[in-house]
Amino acid sequence: MKRVIIIGGLMAGLGWLIWEIARIETRLDDVASLAYQSPSLSRSPINQPSSPSPAHATPQPRAQDFDFDYWEDLFATAGEDRSSVRNELIERLAIWNYGELEALAKAAKERFQGDSHGHYEYWALRLMAERDPLRTLEHYLMDPNHSTSHRELFEITFYHLTQRNVEAAANWILTNHTTAHRDLRKQIAAVALSLSNRPTNQLSGWLESLQSANVRIDYEHLFRAIAHLVNDRSTLYEQITHLNDPEIQRAAERSLINVLLEAEGFESAALAFEGLASTEERRHYLFKALVTEGVQVAPESAVGWLCQQGTEDQIQSLLPDLILLWAGNGDSLSAETWLFAQESSPLRDQSLSQFINAMIRKGEREAATRAVAAIQDPDLQSHTAKRVARFLDR
């Protein structure tokens, strides 16, 4: 007799995706988790390992299977170790049709009250989900009022479906997103991660189909999770360049830049920029996104890269705001040191003015006063000195 399958630890691939997405979104504070984790089965009452039972090998019900006297005798003679009997009973339950399972499992639980692990319906559904996840989703887990229609079991079933047939999983979401009675963001993330390794048009086409169907998706957080976990980021770059919707594409690009800045540093993010900037318009947008996000992670590298790689217009328009972010959110002393090392110019004066704005917000009067004295334009210096006095001399 085949034994019930025990899936130990975290499930590979998508199982880890779920844990990581939950961790990422917890860090983002106001964002609900994008992905799911297949829970450890260490709490399983079935402690005898067995080999997977393919759908075509599923046995057929027999008349004796639910002769409850027969099963009661087996439990009675099993002694303290009832696991083998429990394994066999759940295996038998898992071959009955969905309509009969609930009643049979309830009767088994009432009959074998001495079995403290007797959640037979749940474990039978675990086996059903492994053998035929799509049928399990469609015929059993869609009822929000059912006792076993809870998040964990749904996520495990969807995990099996995504592993077995990602196209079927993608179509299931597209078809059932309005009637599934549950938040599907985790499942959308799992399918998107899998599709990101497929031909370039599959992910784009599926996301655009979801958008057309009015499925609400936070694309930045979705791609943030994918960028953290995808095996080959060069494939992801290609996927992003083939996204047809500008909103989705920009969200994906921002997410990728943020992940690279956090995980690998400014230089890696700058290399990715070169791969993504396929048109002049996108280059201009991505350049601004890179230095604006980069200054909050590696401010001196971001500012230096702007001054070396940017056009005159980009430097003029972006540098003062980068100084404001650097001084306001990070190490104001290093920002001040960098500014004071630059040659006098109108751009340096404008940047000093933004530095002073940051110091006013932080209440650092001495740093603000030093910066006022360094401004060369007399009108700007006078105006800025009055602003410092108004806000910091109160």
Q: Helical segment tally?
A: 21
Question: Approximately what portion of the residues adopt beta-strand conformation?
Answer: under 5%
Give the radius of gyration: 30 Å
Spatial separation of the terminal alpha carbons: 84 Å
How would you describe the shape?
elongated
Biggest sheet descriptor: none
Structural class: mainly alpha
Q: Tell me how many strands there are.
A: 0
Helix content: 55-70%
Q: What is the chain-wise order of helices and strands?
A: HHHHHHHHHHHHHHHHHHHHH
Return the domain count: 3
Low-confidence sequence ranges: 1-58
Question: What is the arithmetic mean of pLDDT?
Answer: 76
Spell out the blueprint of helices and strands:
Layout lengths: L13 H14 L40 H10 L5 H11 L4 H14 L8 H12 L1 H7 L11 H14 L1 H11 L8 H11 L4 H13 L6 H11 L3 H9 L4 H18 L2 H11 L3 H15 L4 H11 L2 H18 L2 H9 L5 H17 L2 H10 L3 H15 L2
Helix pairs in contact: 1-9, 1-11, 3-5, 5-6, 5-7, 6-7, 7-8, 7-9, 8-9, 9-11, 10-12, 11-13, 13-14, 13-15, 14-15, 15-16, 16-17, 17-18, 17-19, 18-19, 19-20, 19-21, 20-21
Key features of this structure:
394 residues, mainly alpha, 3 domains, 66% helix, elongated
Notes on the protein architecture:
The protein has helices spanning 14-27, 68-77, 83-93, 98-111, 120-131, 133-139, 151-164, 166-176, 185-195, 200-212, 219-229, 233-241, 246-263, 266-276, 280-294, 299-309, 312-329, 332-340, 346-362, 365-374, 378-392. It has 394 residues and is mainly alpha-helical. The chain has three domains: 1-166, no CATH class; 196-294; 307-394. The longest helix is centred in the middle third of the chain and has 18 residues, at 246-263. It is elongated, with a radius of gyration of 30 Å. The model is unreliable at 1-58 (pLDDT under 50).
